[in-house]
Amino acid sequence: MKRIYLICSLAVFLGIAAGISYFLIRDANEKIPSDITLINQNGDQYNFGKDKTKLKLVEFIYTHCPDICPTTTQKMSELKKDLEKAGVFGKDIEFVTITIDPYNDTPEILKGYMNGFGIKNDGHWVFLTGDKQNIKTDQGKIGKVASALQFQYKDPGNGQFIHSTFTYLVDQNNKFIAKFPMGENFNQKDAYDKIMDKLK
């Protein structure tokens, strides 16, 4: 009987280990397609494959989010100050915020969202949405970026999106490095340490 318990326990352990390994390997191989181009807060095109010199901290939001999105943006704004003090923000790393609601979050709305957090419109923190003329196509592009990072979201029809709760650090080639919780659980020190370690 003990042998059966031992075999069952071992099988469960191996199953859990295999599951964890699968997700770690999957995340480690994720990459944002370099050919994706979206529109930033100024109405200019932003291409993910153009600049291969900087890390990116990628955040997904929608501006009408009542809690976790603005909390994350605020914490990232504070992280930005720490990275500026270290002399790496804008030089070695940029922030990329992508709306999951491009129909409503126009460049003008995103610019207002930025201003609400006192974020400088200097090109080092870009806010991305879709082009009104190609909104369905660009919505699909946003979905591809989200899918590449395993970020999931859905509009149940009331305008209050259900979505994953992670931000993502990617390297100069848009390849996944690490993810951090959104909202109150976003730990600035953890994100700062991971970024600085990667820049060594």
TrEMBL record:
Designated name of the protein: Electron transport protein SCO1/SenC
Matches recorded under InterPro entries: SCO1/SenC, Thioredoxin-like_sf, Thioredoxin_domain
CDD domains from the UniProt entry: SCO (cd02968)
Keyword set includes Cell division: no
Record's keyword terms, sorted: Copper, Disulfide bond, Metal-binding
Annotated GO MF terms: metal ion binding
Native organism taxonomy: Bacteria, Bacillati, Bacillota, Bacilli, Bacillales
Binding site for Cu cation: 65, 69, 163
Disulfide cross-links: 65-69
PANTHER family (UniProt xref): ELECTRON TRANSPORT PROTIN SCO1/SENC FAMILY MEMBER, LINALOOL DEHYDRATASE_ISOMERASE DOMAIN-CONTAINING PROTEIN
UniProt record similarity statement: Belongs to the SCO1/2 family.
Keyword Disulfide bond: yes
Domain Thioredoxin, first and last residues per copy: 26-200
One Pfam family linked to the record: SCO1-SenC
Coiled-coil stretches noted in the UniProt entry, renumbered to this chain: none
Source organism superkingdom: Bacteria
